Task: structure prediction
Amino acid sequence: MKLRLTLLLVLALSAGACQRGRLSPVVNNSPTATPQANASPKTVLAAAEKVGKKAESERLAAKRKRLAAARRARSRSLASASLEAGRQMLRDSLDESALKAFREAVRLNSRSAEAWLGIAYVCERSGNVKDAIVAFKEAKKLWGM
Result:
């Protein structure tokens, strides 16, 4: 709404609705009145569109940031749930299901050392030593060891 009013005011000023001779001496001497009075309507419209596009792009950028933060939070929450499901399946000796749950946790949050350690444990327990070593090294790297 403010942008429309500003555009209308600028257009009225630039179209000659308020000529320099008709304005009060205070307005005539103001530094902001002179450039607008001399500007063509196309220049004024282009400047107004540029301001509008910048404001729109800033609004969209802020919205993208909020959405990305929400996605990260949701992903961490789902990763935590998958990790806990994997732990429960290990307690119940369901190795294949636990491995799937741990891999899902890693897919959702690749920086989860606990999920990588769960993969390493299940792989080692099932005899897949090569994958167990890879997963353990990843967990060790994430823990900073």
Observations:
- The mean pLDDT is 80.
